[in-house]
Amino acid sequence: MDYIFADKAAIITGASSGIGRATALALAERGARLCLLARSEHQLVEVRKEAHLRGASEVLRYLCDVREEMEVENAVRAAIERFSRIDVLVNSAGLSLNGEVEGYKLDDWRTVIDTNLTGTFLTCRAVLPVMKRQGGGQIINISSGAGHNGIKQMAAYCASKFGVIGFTESLALEVRNHNIRVSVLLPGSVATDFSRVSRREAEQAEREDIGYSMTADEVASVIVAMLAQPDQAWMSEVVLRPLNLELRRTLRG
Ligand SMILES: NC(=O)c1ccc[n+]([C@@H]2O[C@H](COP(=O)([O-])OP(=O)(O)OC[C@H]3O[C@@H](n4cnc5c(N)ncnc54)[C@H](OP(=O)(O)O)[C@@H]3O)[C@@H](O)[C@H]2O)c1
């Protein structure tokens, strides 16, 4: 239990896997009340169970596709009804569908932009009224190193993650005088299911050969640190990179 987080009410998107899951469990260990959003019921049930075991005082879960305005609105409304407030929103839902721009399907473009960028907009918009009413709150949007640098075959993903940074900076300025801190986190490579979903097999093999990445737990610990900022400080953007590539290789054998 951690007095900073005890009974704080947090909504986490992408809570069924990877960074979102690790963040949910890190906040659970500190006694937070959680609302977990994702589309995979089975995984959400597992995370909810684990969050209870780790000490979360209350855990809600909602099947929610962040691309869908009504699903987001309904899930956030349900969390507010239950918790009466929302202290924290972490936007971790995201994906990439890789491919060269020439021949890239419009449907895939829309899926990536709608999930990573529009989904972030929808959840942020939904929590702002309650955060303003209660006199403050914190939002952490997860961009990526791909939000600062273009990567071949990841144009849609990079466009969405550049967009998340611009969106976050703009929103942060709109709400800072309401004591709402909006921050963006740019992780480098993290070992999660993300790569498995997004990469082509050849690229994946090449990446494994590079042999390094952070763990979701390491990223979650940084998110916890960002959420524990002093009252009048605002960590607006955090770039997170793996430190020692050689060490990583050794640890993985
Ligand atoms: N892994 C990396 O190397 C890396 C690096 C930098 C940034 N990031 C960013 O970190 C975030 C988390 O990724 P991760 O590495 O933890 O990957 P992950 O393990 O694949 O998790 C992605 C999460 O997003 C959810 N999601 C995807 N589409 C969704 C939708 N339409 N509606 C609701 N939820 C959706 C998934 O849940 P369901 O499928 O159950 O809906 C899952 O919980 C992403 O924004 C990613 O872009 C990852």
Topology at a glance:
Layout: E1 9-13, H1 18-29, E2 33-38, H2 41-54, E3 58-63, H3 69-83, E4 88-91, H4 106-134, E5 137-142, H5 155-175, E6 180-187, E7 190-191, H6 193-198, H7 201-210, E8 214-215, H8 216-227, E9 237-240, H9 245-251
Parallel strand pairs: 1-2, 1-4, 2-3, 4-5, 5-6, 6-9, 7-8
Helix pairs in contact: 1-2, 1-8, 3-4, 4-5
This protein binds NADP nicotinamide-adenine-dinucleotide phosphate (NAP).
Question: Can you give a write-up of this model?
Answer:
- The chain is of the alpha/beta class and 253 residues long.
- It has one domain (9-251): Rossmann fold, CATH 3.40.50.720.
- It is built from 9 helices and 9 strands.
- It has a 7-stranded parallel beta sheet with strand order 3-2-1-4-5-6-9, sandwiched between helices. A two-stranded parallel ribbon has the order 7-8.
- α1 runs parallel beside α2, α3 (69-83) packs parallel to α4 and α4 (106-134) runs parallel beside α5.
- The chain is globular, with a radius of gyration of 17 Å.
- The model has no long low-confidence stretch (mean pLDDT 92).
- NADP nicotinamide-adenine-dinucleotide phosphate (NAP) is lined by residues 13-14, 16-20, 38-40, 43, 64-67, 92-95, 115-116, 142, 144, 187, 189-190, 192-194, 197, 216.
- NADP nicotinamide-adenine-dinucleotide phosphate binds next to α1, α4 and α6.
